[in-house]
Amino acid sequence: MTFRIASIAIAAGLAMSASAFAQAPAAPNAGAAAPTGTYKIDPAHSGAFFEIGHLGGISRFMGRFNDISGDLVVDASDKAKIAVAIKTDSIDTNHEGLDKHLKSPDFFNSVQFPTLTFTSSHVRLDGKGEGTVSGNLNLHGVTKPVTLKLKQIGAGKGMKGEQRVGYVATTTIKRTDFGMNYAVPAAATDEVDLRINIEAIKQ
What we know:
- This protein is mainly beta.
- It has 1 helix and 11 strands, in the order ββββββαβββββ.
- The protein has a single domain, classed as Lipid/polyisoprenoid-binding, YceI-like (Lipocalin), CATH 2.40.128.110.
- It has an 8-stranded antiparallel β-barrel.
- It is elongated.
- The model is unreliable at 1-29 (pLDDT under 50).
- InterPro entries: Lipid/polyisoprenoid-bd_YceI (IPR007372), TTHA0802/YceI-like_sf (IPR036761).
- Residues 38-201 form the Lipid/polyisoprenoid-binding YceI-like domain.
């Protein structure tokens, strides 16, 4: 499937200089850039979303994963990185029957493959806080390199004074690349958009 990371978020999303996280100037409405350091994804304010064409593409429908976790390192060097883990049985399309089918061996096979992960190998953002994150996506027991568009949304203090940062990461994948071959494209298109919204807390 394609994750436009609306996402893995993972994503969500992330900040940095021309070669890494978080030294990039924050967006105009976002305040200062995030301080360097290690951050943990806040699952209450993060999510991974997907969008796919139904019945060969006559319409679009969306779903999300409700269980997302992970860590990221904000740094102005090649030390910047992100790791996201998503529980496949947390899929939520607002339809119980569809959720059950998507968890079955026809699609995510949540019993055999309970977690999908994304681990970065390279992060790059420009002075506007926009760029890419490349890495390996493990889905349905298959690992493939993918590159996601990345944007820092903002950075600042939380309600308790904790440092927070937000990113959005998006990409499109083919589900057949990950062995998800059921009824392509009769049931659902091969291409899937993934979106990961990430809000993370400095540790």
